[in-house]
Design brief:
The protein is mainly α. About 50% of the residues lie in helices and about 5% in strands. Helix 1 packs antiparallel against helix 4 and helix 2 packs across helix 3. The longest helix has 17 residues. The radius of gyration is 17 Å and the shape is elongated.
Length: about 140
């Protein structure tokens, strides 16, 4: 599994938003400039997050984006599943993948399932609040 820039940027932006006042609306332009991400790309990420209930978008003068829940309520696994589509380490474990005809004789499938479970469990245990902590 390789996490794309879309997933990495979504996490960075949510951490930045969490570090602001909960009632503060942050304009897209500010987020884009601080994160050094093109405004157009940032807009596609924020639209995805907004349409899926991760942030609230307020349009017009004084508008911007804001979190709609506490940082500890945002699980990294949920954000990456949204931005990446899957966290599966191999195609045969992706949601909706056709049943593999070699599964019964596959000597590696159980290893991939265990890895998939480890990835999902770990990423669902990490929150935006955890990412806010400086190491």
């Amino acid at each position: 599994m390789i996490v794309s820039t879309r997933g990495r940027y979504a996490l960075r932006v949510l951490v930045e938003m969490a570090e602001h006042s909960p009632d503060e609306r942050i304009p897209l332009k500010e987020i884009s400039e601080r994160q050094e991400i093109s405004q157009k790309y940032m807009e596609s990420i924020m639209t995805l997050l907004s349409k899926n209930g991760f942030v609230d978008a307020i349009h017009g003068k004084g508008g911007g984006y804001m979190l709609n829940r506490k940082p500890e309520e945002y699980r990294v696994g949920d954000i990456l599943r949204l931005t990446e589509g899957t966290l599966a380490p191999v195609a045969c474990l992706e949601s909706g993948a056709p049943k593999c005809e070699k599964e019964k004789n596959c000597r590696t499938v159980n290893m991939w399932r265990k890895l998939d479970d480890l990835i999902e469990t770990y990423l669902d245990s990490v929150t935006i609040a955890d990412l806010m902590k400086k190491v």
